[in-house]
């Protein structure tokens, strides 16, 4: 099951919040309340906490605009976009497959940072109109900000944060937007997506290690331009570096897997003789006669030669053991109408994306409405392992 919850949709793209977003919303609100209190000592608790909460919400609205820019361009380039999820580190667009060309990759990547920069500069300019000549503002930034009201203070912080967000995302560390721009350039130069991804991921990991080492140095008192010094700043920088390193590795592995599965039909790795069970047997019979004997964790439920559902070990676990004799398979299975499926001639890469999207371990394989096999994640993993060993 996917973590988090759905809050709505924009342009037919589902918008979701990961549970970690609630924590970062609280953390950002708490930090901003402290910052605003230092800048405006005359503000009461309600005003500074209310302004901080509004600023945190608007920041995530800006992140959503950033991701929507990616998604809308992806849609214009013919790539299906299923959802956008806001989480601890910001947001991510769930684009179902890699772009078809370096040009599509470039424009998809560049519009996110451009959107953040446009929002940022527009907000900062609006506040500047009320601050007087720019030279006066730069000469006395503390006094200029101190005389701002809640709304201009919020907009100034939000504008500068969006500018920072846009610049940060242009760092050429894959899978940041800057890293994807770099990959598009390398892809255009080499005409090889896998090689371009490997090189861009290598740059991303190098930058991640610089962040980690810089963060550790800051913890021990080093002063780094732009990032400053101190335990808290250093810990955040090291943590972001670690996340970037992990994301870079995972992104490269995903491209390698998709490349290996491209053009390979599902029929080459599906189980063409899956164990099936009827819908009216009891859960106890399912466990004793099937799960305990062959060790499978999922079964196609078939009545009169027709697929009516799938039942899994997780479904069985949802029922107390004392009720296994009284409950039947059709009462706990996922019905056929709710199942995603694959076809025998479908690319295995597409089937793998369906497995990941639905967060399930197996797919029924149908041909002409008839069950001809079952494709499980472990079947794909076994095929990948075997072919990796044969090619090494």
Features:
4-stranded mixed beta sheet; CBS-domain; 14 helices; 392 residues; 59% helix
Quick recap of the structure?
By secondary structure, this protein is an alpha+beta fold.
Helix/strand layout:
Layout: E1 5-10, E2 13-17, H1 19-39, H2 45-76, E3 81-87, E4 90-95, H3 102-129, H4 134-139, H5 141-146, H6 150-169, H7 177-190, H8 193-219, H9 231-261, E5 276-277, H10 283-294, E6 298-303, E7 306-312, H11 313-317, H12 329-332, E8 334-335, H13 348-358, E9 362-367, E10 370-376, H14 377-391
Parallel strand pairs: 2-3, 5-6
Antiparallel strand pairs: 1-2, 3-4, 6-7, 7-8, 9-10
Helix pairs in contact: 1-2, 2-3, 2-6, 3-6, 3-7, 7-8, 8-9
Describe this structure in words.
- The protein is α+β, with helices and mostly antiparallel strands.
- The protein has helices spanning 19-39, 45-76, 102-129, 134-139, 141-146, 150-169, 177-190, 193-219, 231-261, 283-294, 313-317, 329-332, 348-358, 377-391; strands spanning 5-10, 13-17, 81-87, 90-95, 276-277, 298-303, 306-312, 334-335, 362-367, 370-376.
- The strands form three sheets. A four-stranded mixed β-sheet has the order 1-2-3-4. A four-stranded mixed β-sheet has the order 5-6-7-8. A two-stranded antiparallel sheet has the order 9-10.
- Helix 2 (45-76) runs parallel beside helix 6 (150-169).
- The two termini are 36 Å apart.
- The model has no long low-confidence stretch (mean pLDDT 86).
- How many independent structural domains? 3
Can you summarize the main beta sheet?
4 strands, mixed
Q: Structural class, from helix and strand content?
A: alpha+beta
Q: Can you count the beta strands?
A: 10
Major beta sheet, strand line-up? 1-2-3-4
Encode the helix/strand succession as letters: EEHHEEHHHHHHHEHEEHHEHEEH
> Can you count the helices?
14
Strand content: 5-15%
Shape: globular
State the distance separating the first and last CA atoms.
Answer: 36 Å
Low-confidence segments? none
- pLDDT averaged over residues: 86
Helix content: 55-70%
Q: How many whole angstroms does the radius of gyration measure?
A: 26 Å
């Amino acid at each position: 099951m996917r973590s988090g919850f759905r809050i709505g949709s924009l342009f037919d793209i589902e918008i979701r919040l990961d549970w970690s977003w609630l924590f970062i919303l609280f953390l950002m609100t708490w930090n901003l309340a402290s910052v605003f209190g230092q800048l405006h000592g005359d503000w009461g608790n309600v005003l500074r906490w209310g302004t901080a909460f509004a600023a945190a919400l608007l920041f995530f609205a800006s992140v959503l605009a950033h991701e929507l820019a990616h998604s809308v361009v992806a849609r214009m380039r013919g790539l299906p976009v299923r959802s956008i999820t806001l989480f601890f580190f910001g947001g991510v667009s769930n684009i179902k497959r890699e772009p078809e060309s370096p040009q599509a990759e470039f424009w998809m990547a560049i519009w996110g940072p451009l959107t953040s920069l446009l929002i940022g500069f527009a907000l900062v300019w609006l506040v500047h109109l009320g601050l007087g000549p720019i030279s006066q503002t730069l000469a006395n930034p503390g006094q200029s900000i101190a005389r701002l009201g809640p709304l201009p203070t919020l907009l100034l912080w939000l504008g500068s944060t969006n500018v920072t967000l846009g610049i940060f995302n242009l760092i050429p560390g894959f899978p940041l937007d800057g890293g994807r721009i770099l990959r598009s350039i390398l892809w255009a130069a080499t005409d090889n997506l896998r090689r371009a991804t490997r090189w861009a991921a290598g740059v991303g990991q190098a930058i991640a290690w610089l962040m980690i080492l810089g963060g550790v140095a800051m913890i021990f008192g080093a002063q780094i331009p732009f990032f400053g010094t101190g335990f808290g700043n250093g810990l955040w920088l090291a943590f972001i570096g670690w996340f970037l390193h992990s994301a870079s590795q995972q992104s490269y592995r995903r491209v390698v897997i998709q490349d290996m599965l491209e053009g390979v039909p599902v029929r080459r790795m599906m189980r063409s003789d899956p164990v099936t069970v009827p819908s009216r047997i009891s859960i106890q019979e399912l466990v004793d006669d099937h799960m305990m004997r062959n060790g499978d964790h999922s079964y196609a439920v078939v009545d009169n030669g027709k697929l009516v559902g799938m039942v899994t070990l997780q479904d069985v676990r949802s029922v107390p053991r004392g009720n296994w004799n009284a409950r039947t398979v059709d009462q706990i299975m996922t019905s056929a109408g709710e199942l995603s499926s694959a076809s025998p001639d479908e690319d295995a890469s597409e089937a793998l994306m369906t497995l990941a999207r639905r967060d399930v371990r197996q797919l029924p394989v149908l041909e002409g409405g008839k069950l001809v096999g079952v494709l499980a994640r472990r079947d794909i993993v076994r095929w990948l392992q075997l072919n990796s060993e044969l090619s090494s």
